[in-house]
Amino acid sequence: MPELPEVEVTRLGIESHIIGQTIHAVEVRQPQLRWPVAPQLSQLAGQPIQAVKRRAKYLLLETPLGTIMVHLGMSGSLRVLHKPDLPGKHDHVDVHFTHGLCLRYNDPRRFGSWLWIEAHQTSHTLLDQLAPEPLSVAFDATYLQHKIKGRRRPIKVCLMDQSIVVGVGNIYANEVLFKTGIHPERIASTLSLSACQDLVTQIKRTLEQAIAQGGTTLKDFSQSDGQPGYFAQKLCVYGRKHQPCLNCATKITEFKLGQRATFMCEHCQV
User: Fold this and answer.
1) For this structure, is 27 an active site residue?
2) Which tens digit of pLDDT belongs to each residue from 144-197?
3) Cα Rg, the chain, nearest whole Å
4) Active-site residue, selected from the candidate residues 11, 54, 57, 156
């Protein structure tokens, strides 16, 4: 699944191409994704794209009529096409602009979504309960320690809880815990304020590095221009089962935690 850096890289990739562009038509070839594609998209002819924003893993394409709310799901991607070719099997939505540009949505697994926020609405029910952004000033050590106080769940599970902080998915949770030397199964409430500060610092640093370097290259992700990101080359533990730890050469282990693949160094993380 594209994580926060991948979504932010996508936002940055499409923003300069579509802001100020006027929609000619929205072509929906597959009306049923995770939820039905919003019927309001058919009313957008003549509407300009005023802004391209992100909240958690949702992309928000603002128009005077309202906002298109896109989630990439497990395998979704957006491409900016200057000369669109014939759509493929998994190309489900095209936003055609008056000057020939096309924003194409591809999603083999169809777990993504194209929803709608009316212009008079301030938010959407899916956005209302989201926690602070990890790169915001609201996400700091004091906040994190308060949110995990009394929680008997493993810290890795808590870091991936969207009611605590948004956008720290499985890849980056693994990486951050390795960099801070914290065992993924450690009970969250046992972490000190100092440990929370280390986590917050590494979360911000790791996500910022991933965004700067183009997101994490996985089989389901490439940037809006079709070029893959390359942060995967710098991953320390994720996907490196049985490979030597970059710090101590101990073999990286893998196990399931919260039904997600978890990678760690048993020597470096306690």
Assistant:
1) no
2) 999 999 999 999 999 999 999 999 999 999 999 999 999 999 999 999 999 999
3) 20
4) 57
